[in-house]
Amino acid sequence: MKQLFQHILLIVCITTLLFGCSNSPGDEIVIAIPDGPSVISMMRIIDQPPVIDGKQVKVMVQSEPLQIQAMMVQNKLDFAMLPTVMAANLYNKNVNYRLLAIPVWGTLYVVTNDSTIHDTSDLNDLTIHIFGQGATADVLFRHYMKSKQLRNIHIDYSFNTNQEVALALLNRTISTAIVSEPLVSMLISRDSKLKIISELTVETNQNHLQKNMFAQTALLVRSDFLEKHPEYVRKMVSHVEASCMYTMLRPEKIASLMVEYKFADDIATAMRSIPLCNIDFVKASAIREEIGRYLNIFYTFDPASIGGKLPDEAFIVDEE
Question: What's the CA gap between 139 and 178, in Å, rounded?
């Protein structure tokens, strides 16, 4: 019996070692990103995945942020990109990922096929279609309505997905909606009478970045990965920053890659989409106040959207 127990223990140990090796952090660095503007910001890395100190970077593109959230809860990712609001919510629920940077800013637009609508003031007394009551587009549009002093607007939440909203615009069963890139560019490429009325801005006052402080997308790192491998994190951040910069400096190359990897139907649509994605890598530690003001919008409208409270200071990784 003793020999049998030792034999079983040996098998368990060998199996543990084998599985430990195959899943060890020495094999690869894994980042998951949602389809859309995040992909455009990461296009150079998707095309040429870097190797960081012997670790191959693996980019996983998911159709929905909820898929990424599930992997984060299971600690399957070293890095992730998510809507900043969702990232704050997860952090407040003790999912151990922290905020490194904001690579993608506002990509939500008021779009219409109504020829009588020319600017924001024409939105009064209309029905605006939005997917997701209480979601980012809804909260920010209600904030936008207040800041622009719009009146008597009915918000319709009857569509189940952003794609359904876009299709309804194309079919002209609705006239005005909030739509995100890259759907905006797709819509305009298919119907030249569709037009952008306004970007969904967050702040009307200028700030030190001279930009709309819609800190839409967060680059996150798993807390224990940061603690164990700070040098890997610094190098990964540099690669993501370089990818974002390359996207803005070489849009024609990125557009070609988007078509090659089937993230866009054609070069013209891809070229239209890139500037509308507002890609600009900014380290979170440099804009703590702005991120706090952005998240406070959601806390004011619906505290549960960010986990019932504003994240504490440890949410943002200090620049080293």
Answer: 11
As to burial, measured by CB atoms within 10 angstroms (0-12 exposed, 13-18 middle, 19+ buried), residue 26 is exposed
Dig out the tokens for 78 from the structure.
């070293």
Cβ atoms within 10 Å of 28's Cβ, excluding its own: 17
Residues sharing a CB contact under 8 Å with residue 288, sequence separation 6 or more, in sequence order: 313, 316
Domain boundary among 170, 199, 228: 199
| Average pLDDT rounded to a whole number, residues 272-291 | 95
CA 125, 128, 133, 135 torsion-angle sign: negative
Band (pLDDT 50/70/90 cuts) for residue 6 is very low
Buried b (16+ CB within 10 A) or exposed e, 256-287: bbbbeeebbeeeebbbbbbebbbbbbbbbeeb
Of 165, 199, 233, at which residue does a domain stop? 199
**Same domain membership, residue 63 and residue 96:** yes
The torsion angles phi and psi of 283, rounded to 5 degrees, stand at: -65, 135
C-alpha 200/C-alpha 110 separation (Å) is 7
Nearest to 201 by CA among 146, 162, 255: 146
Residue 170 tokens read as 């194309």
191 and 216 within one domain: no
Q: Can you read off the two tokens belonging to residue 297?
A: 């919008």
CA angle, 293 then 299 then 302, to 5°: 145
- Measured at the CA of 236, the angle between CA 100 and CA 97, to 5 degrees, comes to 40
Q: Are residues 122 and 180 in the same domain?
A: yes
Residue type, 148: K
pLDDT digits (tens, 9 = 90+) for 155-200: 999 998 889 999 999 999 999 999 999 999 999 999 999 999 999 8
The pTM is what? 0.86
